[in-house]
Structure formats: structure tokens, C-alpha cells
Specification:
384 residues, alpha/beta, Rossmann fold, seven-stranded mixed sheet, binds zinc ion
Amino acid sequence: MNNRDCPVCNCSSKKELAHIKFSLPEHIKLPSSYNVVECDNCGMCYSDTTATIEDYDSYYINCNYYSGNTVTDNSAIIDAIVKHCPSEYRILDMGFGNGQLLNSLKLLGFSDLSGIDPSIDSVNHLKSEGIHQAYQGSIFSLPEKKFFGQFDCCCLTSVLEHLLDPQEAIHNLSQYIKSNGLLVLDIPDYSQVDSVDAAIPNQFNQEHINYFSKESIEWLMNSAGFVSLEYIDFPRYNKDSVEHSLIGVFRKDDTYKAKNIKDKKTALSIERYINTQKTKEMKRKIIIDQLIHDDKKVYIWGTGSFVSYLMETTNINKCNILSFIDNNHLKQGKVFYGFPSISPSEIVDSNAVIVIATMMFTDSIMKQICEMNIKNEVVPLALL
Ligand SMILES: [Zn+2]
């Protein structure tokens, strides 16, 4: 079934690489499965999801947790901006989330900084930090026509992999950029996804639906009237796993003729990654079935996409769940799969097992459990 044409070249002919399924909490109205496919024409790999742009707009407005305090390593994109942009440049961060990048640029002496984000929480948070040119809006509904052609540089970090229509997004963003202005992208590099050790939903979930490489992003950007000035491979290390990001710096140039080189690496990398992870999933299923067999009471620490995935692919929903635990105050007090989400300080049953169900924060949670002197048995699922 054809749900989505290729988001890079619009071809409808594709090959299925994997079927991904996950169970989403009640308040998330997005499909709970999709095929990962490879475009026959350009080699772009993407989720063939049935979700619509309206579904995703609603999701990012209502289920946005990015204004929380998650810190990401932005050093490579900051270096790229400093290298290519004088400090008097007018800079726009589209989808600025918690405002971390804009705050870092402010500290480095950039003074003309603006941000647009779908979440009003994010907008208010940025203003409270002294960056007042913060506006609510989406890359698909440009809110401020007065900004057209006004910016020397636009940044799009960790956004493009989320968008149903990245071509329209780049076209829209291009309108904000001056002639010969710059666009700086930060995207996960899926041509190297086989170096990642994290579980499948960290790479393939309801949010990550475009799996770019240098070839496919070049094709997309050339088609939208941008020429690449520089690509930086930025590895982010997490224990034995390394997740590669690609920083791309592009100049607006309508005269450039695209070369359009097919991506031949990403599909192979995805297939290698999925096969490795399937073996690990078998081990997790055995541990969870044992918890059920022993009738253990459990706290599940984590409410993110790993939990969604476990709900769909294991029997974890048949465990004797007391509640979910999350450090993110935006998630505390909410109900997930019929159970409350509490803060770690609300753990009261010392006989219950704490199942850590997060992909990237297991080490810091285990350290936190030690520091809080919590004596419960702990099962770190991501480390199995
Ligand atoms: Zn294509």
C-alpha cells in the first residue's frame, strides 16, 4: 500500500525494509505502526506512515515535551554557525524547542536572535530567558510574513527527520532567508545507523519518519535551491554506542544544478541495525515474562518511545504495574496506559522492581537511584 511518496524525489516506487510497531499512550492520536521503505529512485529511506500533516501538527502542539530540560550536545552546529556567520547576522532557529541553541549563541555574542516553535510553552520559556523574538508557529504555517527575506541564517536542528513533507518545509524556510543566505541543518545520519546500540524505537518511532544520509539530504536541498558548503560528521557517544549526526551548511543559490546521486548505503545500514536489535529484543522478552511469572510488582521508569515499543512488542502490559516514573515534570501527574506517572520521590513500595525503560538515560537513572538511596531491585532493560 502506498501511503507516502518519497519525501525527497516524490517517486512512489519503493521497497519495504522493515515493519515497525509500537503502542502509543491514549492521548497520542498517531498510527501505531509503519513500514520503513527505501525509494527505488533516489535511495531515500523513510516511514511509509498513514499519518497526515494535521495529525502531526496536533501531536507537536499537544504532546510537546521538548520545552523540558533535556540537554543535547550542540557543539558541532555551534562551531559551524560561528565559522560561517559573523556575530551581527540575523539568525532564526526554526523549531527551537527548549532554546538551548539560541541561548548558546547569545552567550557567544550573537545579538539578533529569533525563534519559532509550535509550542507556546517553548515560546514563553525562551522569552523568560531574555530572547524576546520568540513566536508560536510551525514551519508549515509561516506566521510572520514581515520576516520574509530577513534572515542571514536559519537553523533547523533535529526537525527535518520529523516532517511529513520536508520539501515544503525547506521551501517555506527558504522564504525567510536572504538571497545568498545560509541554512544550517542538524539531522541524524541513518547511513551510519548500524553503529547505534540503542533499541529500535530510539531510531524508528512515531517522530522519526525520514532517514537521511549525505546523499539524500544533498538531493533534497539541491532541489530546493540550496548548494552545500560543508558537511560535518558529528558522532555523539553513549557508552559503546555511537550515534552519528550530520551537520550541513547550505547557501541559497537558485542557479545551482543538482547532481542527484542515489543513496546506496542507508538501506543496508538500516537492515544490519534491525537484525542486531531483534536478537536483543528476545532477551528482554524473557526477562519481562519472568517478572510476570514471579508476580512481581513493578514501577516502570520511563514514559517515552521505548515504553511504547515494549507495550507493543512484549508482555510488559501484563506485569503488575504500580505506576510509571519520569523525571520530566511535564509528564508527572499524567496517565500512561491507565497508570499514573509519578516523580522518583514518590516511590513508596520497596518490594517492587524498578524496570528502567528508557534507551539513552539508563546510566544517569541508575546513578540517581543510588544517590536517592532507593533499595528496590532494578532491571535496566536497555542494557540487556
Ligand atoms: Zn526518492
